[in-house]
Write a structure and sequence with these properties.
Structural class: mainly beta
Largest sheet: 8 strands, antiparallel
Distance between the termini: 37 Å
Helix content: under 10%
Shape: globular
Number of strands: 10
Number of helices: 2
Radius of gyration: 22 Å
Length: 205
């Protein structure tokens, strides 16, 4: 016979809290842009406008999806007579986000290649844009904001994850083909600590 605790746990099951986003975007902004404290506003809890300076990376690959990761490392102290550590300390805790841009736009190019195209202008006759890859790779640090939407109407739930000082840790392969595939812009971003704000990640539900 189920215990009272078991009955309480069953009564608390809420299938609507199984989150499967139907829409998602990743935004970027310079680290001089204010930190987003809240993603919703008003009595109807609608999405708030992002601060001036944020831009949209555009369409993202559905098959590769947006992957959120967390890598933790810890140091253990073991004692004679114990099979388990007697003390553990977390030495590294890194949040990551990987996504693949479909659009060959300025923001995907800058982030993937680690360049600043703000001073580059197209050729006035041909429209060509050309620039040199720096001989010394520079780490490009900026803010990243993932916003996703689950449900609709009054049942809408928004999920957000903000990297206050994200750095590109890895870029994936690009494909040139006349078969299946396209020229995409894949990268993985790691969350670093914003020294002014004092944290690396802010979560929103």
């Amino acid at each position: 016979m189920p215990s009272k605790v078991a009955k309480l746990e069953i009564a608390r099951h809420q299938r609507e809290l199984i989150l499967k986003p139907r829409a998602a975007h990743v935004f970027g902004a310079p680290t001089t842009t204010p930190v987003v404290l809240n993603i919703t506003e008003g009595p109807s809890s609608q999405l708030a406008e992002l601060p001036t300076g944020y831009y949209d990376f555009g369409l993202l690959d559905k098959e590769d999806a947006i992957t959120l990761s967390r890598e933790m490392e810890k140091a253990d102290i073991n004692a004679i007579g114990y099979s388990n550590p007697v003390r553990s300390d977390i030495t590294s805790d890194i949040f990551g986000m990987a996504f693949k841009g479909l659009e060959t736009n300025r923001f995907n190019i800058e982030t993937n290649l680690g360049v600043d195209l703000s001073g580059v202008t197209p050729d006035p006759v041909t429209g060509e844009v050309s620039f040199d890859q720096p001989a010394v790779a520079l780490i490009r640090r900026q803010r990243y904001m993932l916003l996703s939407e689950v449900g609709s109407g009054v049942d809408t739930i928004y999920f957000g994850r903000q990297f206050l000082a994200g750095e590109v840790a890895e870029t994936g392969e690009q494909t040139i083909t006349d078969g299946e595939g396209y020229l995409g812009w894949p990268f993985t971003v790691n969350a670093m600590v914003d020294t002014d704000y004092g944290v690396s990640v802010r979560h929103h539900f």
